[in-house]
Amino acid sequence: MNEEVKYIYLKAHPLFNNADEHFTKAACACMKVRTVARGENISYGEGEYSKIYLLIQGKIKISDFSETDDELIKDILTAPDIFGDLSLSNNLPAHEFAEALTANSIICCFNVAEFKKLLQESPAMAIGYAGMVNQKLKKMESRHSDLVFYDAKARLIRFIKYWAKTDGNRMGNKIVLHNYLTHSDIAAVIATSRQSVNVLLNELRDAGLLFYNRKKIELNDQFIHH
């Protein structure tokens, strides 16, 4: 890929926003850019070949499977973000995988060893990376609290509100979400069944709080302040 395009992609990510030209070009030399199709799995690599990814464009879901093959969606990523071997330890979760939720998702791929060298050379980037990982931990803690303290309906409402906050578009008196998640995906995020998600969404629609179809979800202000 053209080095200029790689440079533009890196500078679009918060980890490289304030990096100087020389450092960013050096990072371009040791990374690869991929355009990922919707539904395509993204390998983390193994051992010394483990990878870290910068999400430049698109949406990615991070999932895990139980011993009974039940899917748990651990996170839904919206660009810009990071994923892969976040511990930089070459010791990856056995069943975790990443999948593109949108067409033409763009990711920058680094070998963990090369990425660690970049962090060692740039304290500012290392602090930025630690901050992004810390935000992910806080998000996981919040989800754990939701599972303990809220029922399925409350968890669904809280998830949709978070989705609207991070990825919604204000249109007049409504917030519109591009619906790239299936009912099964939402169920796997909030730890309930697909049937329960369908019933709960119908309840919220019948109450006049939202409208949804396969392409979009529309939330009115009453839902946001519910």
From TrEMBL:
Domain Cyclic nucleotide-binding, chain residue ranges per copy: 15-119
InterPro entries: cNMP-bd_dom, cNMP-bd_dom_sf, HTH_CRP, RmlC-like_jellyroll, WH-like_DNA-bd_sf, WH_DNA-bd_sf
Keywords attached to this entry: DNA-binding, Transcription, Transcription regulation
SMART domains: cNMP (SM00100), HTH_CRP (SM00419)
Record domain HTH crp-type: where: 150-223
Molecular-function annotations in GO: DNA binding
Any Gene Ontology biological process: regulation of DNA-templated transcription
DNA-binding keyword on record: yes
Protein name: Crp/Fnr family transcriptional regulator
